[in-house]
Amino acid sequence: MNISIKNLQYFLTLVESANFTKAAEKSFITQPTLSKIIQRLEDNLGEKLLHRNNQKVELTQAGQLLEQSAREIVGQWHRLQEEINNLSGLKSGRLRLGVCPMMSSLLIGMLTEFRQRYPGVELQMQEYGGGLSCEQALLSNSLDIGFTALPVSHDNELTHYDLTRYPLMACLPEGHPLCDHSQISWQDFEPFPFILYNQQFSLNKLISRSSEAAGVKLNIAFRSGQWDFLATMVEANMGVALLPEPICQRLSSSKLIFKPVEPSLTWDLALIWRKDLPLTPAANALVLLSQESQTYT
Hints:
Low-confidence stretches: none
Strand content: 15-25%
Order of helices and strands: HHHEEHEHEHEEHEHEHEHEEH
Helix content: 40-55%
Number of strands: 11
Distance between the termini: 51 Å
Largest sheet: 7 strands, mixed
Structural class: alpha/beta
Oligomer: single chain
Radius of gyration: 22 Å
């Protein structure tokens, strides 16, 4: 059996794209070339790896097994390259950083400083729809480090370094009965429709746990993974919500009212990585940089 690291990378790109044309474009090769590479993988393994239905690609059971192993192999190869490249100091390499779109703007200061200090390091930032997807990418060795909100779902397998925290604010439509309150309690939310984050977000878990601890059953009317859409639904009087303070500050609508929550609830941001793997030199440099100043907003 003779399978190259490069061919495993092509296979993983195809898995992520679920489409030969898109995967070939991302890999900077032609579609026929990619098809031949996958065929050679199947010939080497003696198993079909894909179900090909029209343009959609789905993994067979053998393909699923290869995906799991390929991510570990490619990840370990990346780590080996990083260690060798940086034996004489952090001058080159790649940093595979995962981040959720909701918080990506909060990273700008940190990443700007990182690029100034380590101009030879290629920064590969991947956006994920929620914190859970970022965690899963770390566990599959597709990332070196992630920037996300706590709590994490895989706390037995991941460790973290706390960065900063922001209060969560009640987001209300103009004229809502709760607008007269100086602060909002969990019991105040109970009679009204509530708009919650989807289950990929750590905020979903945080809000659910906190309301349950207060003995309150929220009336979940809608779920969203987009803070701007969530705010639009509140503005349309479809429900109330909780938003982190930095997000509230970015909303310019005069039809939204923000109130503090009692007891206070915070959005805790952190860098996370796998417990069982050492940080790559570039990822370690990012953690050390964050320790110098924990607020880059």
